[in-house]
Amino acid sequence: MTTLLCLAVVAAVVVVGAEAQRPGGGGRRLKPGPPRPRPPPAEELGEISTWNRTVDDTVDDTDVSQNGISISTDNVVIVKTRGQNLTSGMLYSSNVMYLFGGASPMAAIRRGRGRACFVIPGLSGETFNSTANKLAIRNGTTVTDALTDDQRSALGTPLDTDEATALFESNPGLGRFCRGARVVETVQADPATFPSPGSEPEDQKVVSFLTLNSKVSLLVNTPPPRPASPGGGRRPGRPQGRNQGRPQGRNHGRPGRTQG
Prior knowledge:
Elements: H1 2-21, H2 42-45, E1 48-53, E2 64-71, E3 76-82, E4 94-99, E5 106-110, E6 116-120, H3 128-138, E7 142-143, E8 148-153, H4 161-170, H5 174-177, E9 182-185, E10 187-188, E11 204-210, E12 214-221
Parallel strand pairs: 1-7, 6-9, 8-12
Antiparallel strand pairs: 1-2, 2-3, 3-4, 4-5, 5-6, 8-10, 11-12
């Protein structure tokens, strides 16, 4: 009897110890770690400027909204263009980053969180201070200055991982801006042979974006169409409805009851 009692006490101690270590048991719970720090608001990074721009490519020449911020700690300027009528004339909403921390100034364009990040190397005549000053001057105004046409080819092969990493390391901020997208370096195109929207080759397309002073038109490759799935988009052999192939009632397949 004494032996059985000792075994019972030992078993109880083992169970209590296991419960103390198990999450949700009767033991002490571990305190959660510190919350992950959130990125500071844009207002703390730099002064935000907002202005409108009159663009002929929009429906009824509607003004579009642009805003920009200069971040002196990274030597970058970011400009966003938004507008409900921008898709007329293949003109799209966009984010543009000007980078001045590398060997030479450059810019990158991205359509929202699009899958491609287009790089424009070698900006001439631009500095961080001059670009940041433009934001301050335009704040609260409507810009009607004529846009410079910049026609470029983006038909090249996207950078591989090593090439993109080297570009990001030499241009602080570009890696965050292009995160999750393929990076394509653009080259100046010949205006005499650059196609207008609607006259491009079958597998190419002209898309345009606004920067601070330019309308950048890019000739890009269009992705091939997806092959149609058999059966009108449904997987072969898949039931056409939720209940197809299932019993239709509680007594389906059971022997019938005797009447009487």
